[in-house]
Design a protein that fits this description.
Layout lengths: L7 H38 L5 E2 H6 L1 H4 L3 E8 L5 E8 L2 E12 L6 E10 L3 H4 L14 E10 L16 E2 L7 H8 L9 E5 L21 H30 L1
């Protein structure tokens, strides 16, 4: 009497699916190894000597997470408040302001100026759209970390549809960068700067993040391996049940 009768069709489907699941698991493991090398490279860059932001703009990929210095004037009228954001136990937002470079480049460098507590947000809001002004006359020097800006589909737009608040911002997300550039009348440089400076009066509070992985590749790998294993277990149980029913 047969004790295991899964059938040809279910067997083929199960093994094809299990092979695909395990392949995805091994692919995630390879991505995890690549990610570790990439993060180690970026972490090493943060220890290098500071370089002018113009060099980072000329070669964004090799300057990601490199410390840079940028000189220019704030485009205060185009400031964007991103939040809510947390810093320790404080709730607030982050302030993003484009910087018109002193070298006269038509592209502006987007600068994450740092964190502000919730009670101070109103003090960092840009003027009303009808009161848009040129770049601030006061020159500034910004020290911070260079991050690649995903400008794949980003194009300059108009201040007519300006939004002074954005719920989130990630320089790696083309869709978010596209929305921000669409409300600015100029191009953004392919590098943004995460300021390490604290502003006058103690705000915004500048800080720079260590490079971290946006994806838990190891967790995904374990998930795919578990799904593949469960599919084989289900196939075995299915074959045993069919055998019992046939008997």
């Amino acid at each position: 009497m047969a004790k295991f009768r899964p059938g040809v069709g279910p067997t083929v489907l199960t093994f094809v699916a299990a092979a695909a699941f395990f392949a995805l698991g091994f692919w995630q493991l390879s991505r995890n190894e690549w990610r570790k090398r990439d993060l180690a490279l970026k972490a090493a860059r943060t220890e290098l000597a500071e370089t002018p932001v113009e060099e980072a703009i000329a070669d964004p990929a090799s300057h990601a997470f490199r410390r840079v210095v940028a000189r220019g004037r704030w485009e205060i009228a185009d400031t964007i408040i991103v939040g809510p954001a947390e810093r320790g136990r404080d709730l607030g937002a982050r302030v993003l302001t484009p910087l018109a470079l002193a070298n006269g480049s038509p592209a502006r460098v987007l600068v994450d100026r740092g964190f502000i507590p919730e009670r101070e947000i109103k003090n960092f809001l840009p003027p009303d759209a009808g009161a848009v002004t040129p770049a601030s006359a006061e020159p500034v020097t910004v020290h911070g970390l260079a991050l690649e800006l995903a400008l794949r589909d980003a194009k300059p737009g108009s201040r007519d549809s300006r939004h002074t608040h954005h719920p989130r911002f990630n320089p790696d997300r083309p869709g978010i960068v596209k929305k921000i550039n669409a409300q600015l009348p100029y191009e953004l440089a392919p590098i943004m700067v995460q300021s390490s400076d604290t502003g006058p009066g103690g705000l915004p509070i500048g800080d720079v993040a260590r490079p971290v992985s946006p994806v838990d590749h190891l967790g995904y790998a374990l998930t795919w391996f578990a799904v593949g294993t469960l599919s084989l277990v289900a196939w075995i149980e299915f074959g045993r049940r069919r055998a019992r029913e046939a008997s």
